[in-house]
């Protein structure tokens, strides 16, 4: 779809298409719809980013809490969203051996106990080795730093999901 088509979508279709670009946060999509027309994909990305940045810390933590654990209950139970399932499988998180699965679960729990929100990373930009390394390393950070970093990862996930939906190049004028 090109940006002209995006701009022409009625509200319901816009939310149907873009409602999960931020995992389980269709509110963000519903909010930025009124910012149309978007000049290009970067404008749409910027509108989402600006909405997120304007949230209070509690709102940012809420976005992080909407994310399923990596290699967690939702993956095991088959209740991941399509996007999340593809992302986690792409990083090999659906093929962990028992030791890896146990380590990820233990680190995810430790991370959540420490910060009160889950570890979030853009799975498509990492493989399982780096995700495990980041998970153990980021457990040691301060909460404010992890809230910021988690939101940065949310934006990376969002941008990749948007790129799968909207053609970045300007529509052909010819
Ligand atoms: N906790 C997470 O980081 N979840 C996820 N990262 C992704 O890239 N997809 C997810 O579901």
TrEMBL record:
Cellular compartments annotated: Peroxisome
The keyword Lyase appears for this protein: yes
One cellular-component annotation, GO: peroxisome
Cited InterPro entries: OHCU_decarboxylase, OHCU_decarboxylase-1, OHCU_decarboxylase_sf
GO BP terms: allantoin metabolic process; purine nucleobase metabolic process; urate catabolic process
The entry's keywords: Decarboxylase, Lyase, Peroxisome, Purine metabolism
SUPFAM superfamilies in the cross-refs: UraD-Like
Enzyme class: lyase
Gene Ontology MF terms in the entry: 2-oxo-4-hydroxy-4-carboxy-5-ureidoimidazoline decarboxylase activity
Catalyzed reactions per annotation: 5-hydroxy-2-oxo-4-ureido-2,5-dihydro-1H-imidazole-5-carboxylate + H(+) = (S)-allantoin + CO2
EC number of the protein: 4.1.1.97
Role this protein plays: Catalyzes the stereoselective decarboxylation of 2-oxo-4-hydroxy-4-carboxy-5-ureidoimidazoline (OHCU) to (S)-allantoin.
Name the UniProt record assigns to this protein: 2-oxo-4-hydroxy-4-carboxy-5-ureidoimidazoline decarboxylase
Species, as recorded: Betta splendens
Gene for this chain: urad
């Amino acid at each position: 779809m090109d940006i002209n088509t995006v701009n022409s979508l009625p509200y319901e279709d816009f939310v149907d298409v873009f409602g999960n670009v931020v995992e389980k946060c269709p509110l963000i999509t519903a909010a930025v719809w009124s910012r149309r027309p978007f000049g290009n994909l970067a404008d749409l990305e910027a509108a989402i980013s600006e909405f997120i940045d304007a949230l209070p810390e509690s709102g940012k933590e809420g976005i992080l809490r909407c994310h399923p654990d990596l290699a967690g209950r939702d993956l095991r139970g088959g209740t991941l969203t399509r996007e999340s399932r593809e992302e986690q499988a792409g990083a090999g998180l659906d093929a962990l051996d028992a030791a890896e699965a146990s380590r990820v679960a233990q680190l995810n729990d430790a991370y959540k106990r420490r910060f009160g929100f889950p570890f979030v990373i853009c799975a498509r930009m990492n493989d399982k080795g780096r995700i495990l390394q980041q998970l153990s390393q980021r457990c040691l950070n301060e909460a404010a730093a992890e809230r910021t970093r988690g939101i940065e990862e949310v934006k990376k996930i969002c941008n990749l999901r948007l790129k799968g939906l909207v053609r970045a190049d300007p529509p052909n004028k010819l």
